[in-house]
Amino acid sequence: MKDLSSRLKYQTGEIHLRDGLATTGLALPKSNWAQRLDTPPYTAWPVTGGITFTFGGVRVDAAAQVQSTSWTPIPGLYACGEMVGGLFHGNYPGGTGLMSGAVFGRLAGAHAAGA
């Protein structure tokens, strides 16, 4: 923390513009909106990534089997829910991701179990 805080240079600026508050001399530079971490107590929260939905997910067939780039099924690979592409074009009606998961999940499960 001391290393990061000691490498910050402060400038003033508008909130909607890049402010130039940056670190210098670090392997991974912070180029804007850097803030000193010099006043305890410090609090941290775990952060994970997630996908809410995809407008361009993977292609599947009627059995929910993922299609290759040559439009042939990839053996043993199925998709459902938010990973299925081609369902939403430019808009996402609320709750439809759950239905996609239910429909394609049932299809994928049934076909995977029978494979």
Report on this structure.
The chain is of the alpha+beta class and 115 residues long. The protein folds into two domains: 1-44, no CATH class; 65-114, no CATH class. The chain is 21% helix and 11% strand. The chain has helices spanning 2-6, 96-114, and strands at residues 8-9, 22-23, 65-67, 73-78. The strands form two sheets. It has a two-stranded antiparallel ribbon. A two-stranded antiparallel sheet has the order 3-4. The model has no long low-confidence stretch (mean pLDDT 80).
Q: What's the oligomerization state?
A: single chain
Q: With helices defined by DSSP (H or I, 4 residues minimum), what is the helix count?
A: 2
Q: Specify the helix fraction band.
A: 10-25%
- How many domains in all? 2
The helix/strand class is alpha+beta
Based on CA atoms alone, the radius of gyration comes out at 23 Å
Q: Main beta sheet: strand number and arrangement?
A: 2 strands, antiparallel
**Which regions have little confidence, pLDDT < 50, spanning 5+ residues?**
none
The count of β-strands is 4
Give the overall form. Answer: elongated
The arrangement of helices and strands along the chain is HEEEEH
What's this, in brief?
By secondary structure, the chain is an alpha+beta fold. It has helices at residues 2-6, 96-114, and strands at residues 8-9, 22-23, 65-67, 73-78.
